[in-house]
Design a protein that fits this description.
heterodimer; A: 309 residues; alpha/beta; Rossmann fold; 2 domains; 10 helices; B: 434 residues; alpha+beta; Porin; 16-stranded antiparallel beta barrel; two-stranded antiparallel ribbon; 5 helices; 46% strand
Chain lengths: 309, 434
Amino acid sequence: MKIKNCLAVLVTLFMASLPAQGQSKLNVITTTEDLAAIAREVGGDHTTVESIARGYQDPHFVEAKPSFILKLQKADMLILVGRDLEIGWLPPLIQQSRNSKVQVGADGYLDASLQVRILEIPQGQITRAEGDVHPLGNPHYWLDPENGKIIAREIFDKFAHFRPNDRAYFEQRLNDFVNRINDAAKRWVALMAPYKGTKVVTYHRSFPNFAERFGLNIVGYVEPKPGIPPTPQHTLDLINEMKKTNVKLVLVEPYFDLKTPNAIGRETGAEVLVMPPSVGGVKEVTDYFKLFDYDLNLLINAIKKISAK
Amino acid sequence: MNSRGITCTIIVLSVLCCNGFAQTPTAADLNALRAQLDAIKADYDKRIQALEMQVQALQTQVQTAPKPETAAVVPPGQPPAAEVPAGAQGAGGPTGALPVYGGVASSKVFNPDIAVIGDFLGAAGSNKVNPDPALELHESEAAFQAIVDPYARADFFISFGEQGVNLEEGYLTFPAIPGGLLVKVGKMRAAFGKINTLHNHVLPWTDRPLVTTQLVGGEDGINDAGLSVARLIPNPWIFLEATGQVFRGDSNDLFKSSKRGDVTYVGHLRGYQDITENTNIDLGVSFSRGHNAAGVVNDFDLGRFRTTLYGADATIRWRPLKRSIYHSFVGRSEFVWSRRGQPDGVQSALGYYFSGDYQFARRWFAGVRYDRSKRADDPSLVDKGQSAILTYWPSEFSQVRGQYRRTQYAVGPTANEFLMQFQFSIGAHGAHPF
């Protein structure tokens, strides 16, 4: 009888452990905090999501630290921005991860850029005389909430594929996210409607999708060419252009030096805004919604301030 | 559209043929079928005409529409203009307009990533012991890299120098072998220390330290055909990786194989830890053992002498994430202890270097290096060197470097030199060195 009881307890314990295993959290690694924020919206507490890059660092120049190899080694899924944004650091991490799930083309490898609206795809012959140009288009596409929805759907498809039992849970969260984005996007576009066509200069080409969605008119860049630091001649030309066309806003990503933008601001009377293009770019921006709330609030306050002058 | 009509006709004919086998048709049946076929043909002719008109109308619209100035977009949900295989898309490969010369060709999609890196050196000052040419295109390295199939990737690095062409590395990597192993097969730089694994163009100097020249096989280092297996050692504290390698046994003057069994072994243990998000430390110990050339007479290894190398390396890196493109510091050191068997007994020689490189602006790096090494075959001879280096990066793809180098040779006058280097890369964007 004792043996029978012991066996019964063991079988019960084994059975009890099975559902727990089946419901183990999906371990997701993303390259940026924006993708992590969207993945958390869809995955909720049925996933653990971690980003490699921090929102306040330049995503082009992340170091391929071995500690990231350890994260990738344990991942069920890798979500990347793609369009060559991570070309300088992600391939060696994937290669050394020893994880077949996240190798290029594997089931757990999701390039989030394949369905979204991509801007600035160069046409014709491309050379590096144009700077560190992205031949596959501008990779800063997450800064359009419409693209955010498409990314969320792609993530949902993968999550549902890996955890079919949780499909309904993920679907409910996806629908909730899409509804909230739709409401928020209406509010954001309405907030910016009075300022449609506002001319701005940005440091790097980080904001084309944002500008298109919210009606900003980007007339120049502090960088003479992508990835090339400002030169005195280009800065002078930019100042003259800004004076001529009455540009009063300079948007700078948090990881760029403010020396040249501030000099441009002094010469032209323009406001220089440190505007995060990513979740985590500043302390207050902790999710995808707060990214647009923060940036639009910053912009509108600056435009009002300029108008009051 | 024409082909669709033809296909339907063929299908109808096939069906008719099949029926023909079942029963013998009468003249009335044949007439009825002929009438049916004529009706189908007339119907498709009408459709083709309509579609041709639509195509013409669309072509006219496209010709009259204004051309985009600099940018094009891919609307959501719409497939990209150029169809590429699913595997290439997953690789972050091209969608939309493909960046290839001569238009879209499916064969080019699978071409490996190709890059060529030029390394031009100039030398001024005096060096009577080991003089470099005043000007030379020291090396032109061509890199070819691609994914072979779902299981492996291949990397080839061919260097063209003034001495000829050399396959610097050419290996196959299996990144996802069961058991958490990373396996490489081919000709490769051995995992002995840090500097031995690095190609010339990612070094922070124009040259290699004296310890490499005197004890670890010179510029090419331990670089041989072999097999490499690396595994992460699970532990709750740090990144720990153990690498074991077996090579044929031929690495320049360092190792010389005369028989199949004279292989060279290399072992490396690497530990890495983030101290803060800005600072990290990388430590390693290495071992290598193989037959040397001290006892080789007329290609026959009479002496059967061996060389054993022990190494220790340490790297500390600092890079503030918010200003990562403007400021950084890398401090490096490597110690190598050589025990070389030769006719006059086993010779023990120690060599090391210390270096520091500070990035003080987005494009500017300044560095110093101190070198000291005994010679492997005669440890009574000690060479010492000091260098100061300044590097300017016009862009991510080119750099200009100046190095003042003072070398006190054990035999011969002290050398004082100014070395100048231009490095440039064309082609595919490679991974940033770490």
